[in-house]
Write a structure and sequence with these properties.
It is a single chain. The chain is mainly alpha-helical. Helices cover about 60% and strands about 0% of the residues.
Length: about 240
């Protein structure tokens, strides 16, 4: 589990009064439906994450560790302006694998020396084991990603879902806090993820008749993040629409 998620869990587990403050009988599909009715992703991309299904996501998933997304966007813009991150995924991948450092460009994201080394090493490993980005998208496993230095559950699942279009949902500290508001206390990343992904297929089809499951997971996570960042009152999710 990544540091940000651990912090959220530690905070909540030390505040049992907060965990008991609200106790609402709700399951994941009902929560998704209520979030959907708030239109939180209007005007955003189909997969919510900028550059979804591209190599840019792989870089962003590492840059976003322990920092705000606004800082990541600055770093990505720097990489694009410098010609390091290109429109073609394979060109970006091979270019990054050959550079010595991208520290200067990703400084806004913090921990830039560490992140630079890890991004370059990951690009090199992708080329060595998969050859190109399309093969990586099709063949990479969660286990392969977790074996890379600096990639935890959240980063691995972000890459699998948002870069590779896999049917797995990212959970983070926002997810933990939202569940706690409903009285759900969970101690591991896997438990939180399992709760969110436990949705009957028939009900999902009624809610999203034509949307692929991977995209549903992507947008579900995006809705949680946007709900939290907008600091909306939890009461809006308490009652069925």
């Amino acid at each position: 589990m990544q540091y940000s998620t651990l912090l959220g869990l530690k905070f909540l587990l030390q505040c049992p009064k907060l965990l008991r403050l609200l106790s609402v009988d709700i399951n994941s599909i009902e929560l998704l439906a209520r979030l959907k009715d708030l239109h939180l992703l209007d005007g955003l991309g189909d997969w919510w994450w900028d550059g979804a299904l591209g190599f840019e996501v792989v870089i962003g998933a590492i840059l976003t560790q322990n920092t705000k997304w606004e800082k990541v966007k600055l770093s990505l813009t720097n990489l694009k302006n410098a010609g390091v991150l290109l429109a073609d995924d394979n060109a970006s991948l091979h270019h990054l694998a050959k550079v010595d450092s991208i520290e200067h460009y990703i400084a806004p994201s913090g921990l830039y020396r560490q992140k630079s080394a890890r991004i370059i090493a990951l690009a090199q490993a992708i080329i060595e084991d998969f050859g190109d980005f399309a093969s990586f998208q099709q063949g990479v496993s969660r286990e392969w990603l977790l074996a890379r230095k600096g990639i935890g559950f959240e980063s691995a699942d972000s890459i699998l879902n948002y870069a590779c279009g896999r049917e797995i949902m990212v959970v983070d500290s926002y997810s933990v806090r939202l569940l706690a508001a409903f009285g759900w206390e969970m101690e591991s990343y896997e438990d939180v993820q399992r709760w969110f992904m436990a949705m009957p297929s028939r009900e999902l089809e009624n809610l999203y008749p034509t949307m692929p499951l991977a995209q549903i997971y992507a947008r579900y996570h995006g809705k949680i993040v946007e709900f939290s960042k907008q600091k909306l009152p939890i009461q809006v999710l308490m009652e069925k629409p």
